[in-house]
């Protein structure tokens, strides 16, 4: 997506490794402003190519004093000043500005982590209508602090411990916040970002999903030749369905969809999904039963990363075979594979192709990102790879994808393989998990809370516990229930069910699913945990 093509000013974020960098992107987009991340050390040409209106330097775990500490490229200062670009440094980004423009950053006498009160010291551009003496609670996370500012800079806010909390040089258009305005723990953070972007920088709020749709259709039509055909891997989830509908709108009947039953689907998922495709979406879909192919490859495998790699490889083998069959039928081999990869998938797996982001550590390989084999014959089309889940849903509404389908909870590409901890082929783990999951999800729907939850599912644990059922001692399986709320899947809080609901579900599972005698609930947020267990 090009900012000019989607008719929007671009706020470019240079990423220095903060766990919150994606939140800056998300918060800015929520203001109808287009935002992208690049590695904070990319060559200057990569920044110039994006033609940003504003640049934000993210936080990060580094110290500006350490050897090889990441920094913006040579010529950056001259570029932003000569082009009138506003720059905001957050946390590490503030310290980088201070140090590189001639100030001094030292190890703080007192480190500041967590909630902290700050006070405005001077009338300034950063805080809008805030007056001298006004206070607010912010989220700090730093050990170093700015002690001497570059010439022309002013301290406009300090923490209750006296540390520099905000600086600015309005004439040179440089601003800095020592805290994180993008997190919810900074209650007035969005007001600060809104004021900075619209009132200080003059950014226009013109980024709309209609423009994204128009641009993506144009990109697909330019990429796919008039005689070329495309395969789309449908999972039954929101992402791949919206991607397929989008590509179908762009190239019509030259799109060929395939739904693979890999033996790792939920209870009656295959029947339900195929009915939806045919009845509501009118997409041409070929269903392939590859249960034996996948499970035979997964037999004995317990490492979650290996599972994901195996599943990614087998999917591609099936897609290649499907492409070969189509070649026999059409007289030409499909050249492209469509996948519903999202921005969070990319961030957690590896750097986005072409976006040069390298600072975030790989959390886990998503089968359609980090799990793809290097010798894959099909070229990828990923029209959603720079969008978050709620943006994909908005795009789906424009494309008239049924609302009930858009509200479905996310389901991982590797399926139940990452919800059966350990060997998925051992015993009847998959069947047990399907039954438990069905009871849990149906109970959530019956309680009228399905749409209040981002994602809910059951997990089969590789342990057994002692129980008493029917006056007999049992030694049976333990299952865990997980439900979270989230806006984009990058961070999440566990859902607080009523005790009666949990009691009813636990009883129903233990009474209905043979081989289960204990139910536990996962009450961990993300971070520190991921949403899925593997």
TrEMBL record:
Catalytic activity annotation: XMP + L-glutamine + ATP + H2O = GMP + L-glutamate + AMP + diphosphate + 2 H(+)
Residue intervals of the GMPS ATP-PPase domain: 207-408
CDD domains from the UniProt entry: GATase1_GMP_Synthase (cd01742), GMP_synthase_C (cd01997)
GO cellular component: cytosol
Binding positions for ATP per the UniProt entry: 235-241
Biological or metabolic pathway of the protein: Purine metabolism; GMP biosynthesis; GMP from XMP (L-Gln route): step 1/1
Top-level EC class as recorded in UniProt: ligase
Protein's UniProt keywords contain ATP-binding: yes
EC numbers on record: 6.3.5.2
Keywords: ATP-binding, Glutamine amidotransferase, GMP biosynthesis, Ligase, Nucleotide-binding, Purine biosynthesis
Short name of one Pfam family: GMP_synt_C
Molecular function (Gene Ontology), one example: ATP binding
Function noted in UniProt: Catalyzes the conversion of xanthine monophosphate (XMP) to GMP in the presence of glutamine and ATP through an adenyl-XMP intermediate.
Record protein name field: GMP synthase [glutamine-hydrolyzing]
Organism: Oldenlandia corymbosa var. corymbosa
């Amino acid at each position: 997506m090009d900012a000019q093509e989607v008719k929007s000013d671009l706020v470019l974020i240079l990423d220095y490794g903060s766990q919150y960098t994606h939140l800056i992107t998300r918060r800015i987009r929520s203001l109808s402003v287009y935002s992208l991340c690049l590695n904070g050390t990319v060559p200057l040409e990569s920044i110039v190519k994006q033609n940003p209106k504003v640049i934000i330097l993210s936080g990060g775990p580094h110290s500006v004093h350490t050897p090889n500490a990441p920094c913006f490229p040579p010529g950056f200062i001259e570029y932003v000043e000569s082009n009138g670009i506003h720059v905001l440094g957050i946390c590490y980004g503030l310290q980088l500005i201070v140090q590189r423009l001639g100030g001094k950053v030292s190890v703080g006498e007192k480190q500041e982590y967590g909630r902290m009160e700050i006070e405005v010291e001077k009338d300034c551009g950063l805080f809008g209508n805030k007056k001298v003496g006004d206070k607010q609670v912010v989220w700090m996370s730093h050990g170093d602090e700015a002690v001497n500012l570059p010439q022309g800079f002013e301290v406009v806010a300090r923490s209750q411990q006296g540390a520099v909390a905000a600086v600015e040089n309005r004439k040179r258009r440089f601003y800095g916040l020592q805290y994180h305005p993008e997190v919810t723990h900074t209650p007035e953070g969005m007001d600060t970002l809104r004021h900075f972007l619209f009132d200080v920088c003059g950014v226009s709020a013109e980024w709309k999903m209609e423009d994204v749709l128009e641009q993506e259709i144009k990109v697909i039509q330019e990429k796919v030749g008039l005689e070329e055909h495309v395969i789309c891997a449908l999972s039954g989830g929101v992402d791949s369905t919206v991607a397929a509908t989008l590509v179908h709108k762009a190239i019509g009947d030259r799109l060929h969809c395939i739904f693979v039953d890999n033996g790792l689907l939920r209870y009656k998922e295959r029947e339900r999904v195929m009915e939806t495709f045919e009845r509501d979406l009118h997409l041409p879909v070929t269903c392939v039963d590859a249960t034996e192919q996948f499970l035979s490859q997964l037999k004995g495998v317990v490492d979650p990363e290996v599972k994901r790699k195996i599943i990614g490889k087998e999917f591609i083998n099936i897609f290649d075979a499907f492409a070969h069959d189509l070649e026999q039928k059409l007289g030409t081999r499909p050249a492209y594979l469509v996948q519903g990869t999202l921005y969070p998938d990319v961030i957690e797996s590896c750097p986005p192709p072409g976006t040069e982001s390298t600072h975030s550590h790989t959390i886990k390989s998503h089968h359609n990102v980090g799990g793809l084999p290097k010798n894959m014959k099909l070229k990828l089309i990923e029209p959603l790879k720079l969008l978050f889940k709620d943006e994909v849903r908005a795009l789906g509404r424009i494309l008239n994808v049924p609302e009930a389908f858009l509200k479905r909870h996310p389901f991982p590409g590797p399926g139940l393989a990452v919800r059966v901890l350990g060997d998925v082929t051992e015993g009847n783990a998959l069947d047990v998990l399907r039954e438990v999951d069905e009871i849990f999800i149906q109970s959530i729907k019956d309680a009228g809370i399905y749409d209040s939850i981002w994602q809910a599912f059951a997990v089969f644990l590789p342990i057994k516990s002692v129980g008493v059922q029917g006056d007999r001692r049992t030694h049976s399986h333990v299952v865990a229930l997980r439900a979270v709320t989230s806006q984009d899947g990058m961070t999440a809080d566990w859902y607080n069910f009523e005790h009666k609901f949990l009691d009813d579900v636990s009883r129903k599972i233990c009474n209905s699913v043979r081989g289960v005698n204990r139910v536990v609930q996962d009450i961990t947020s993300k971070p520190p945990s991921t949403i899925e267990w593997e």
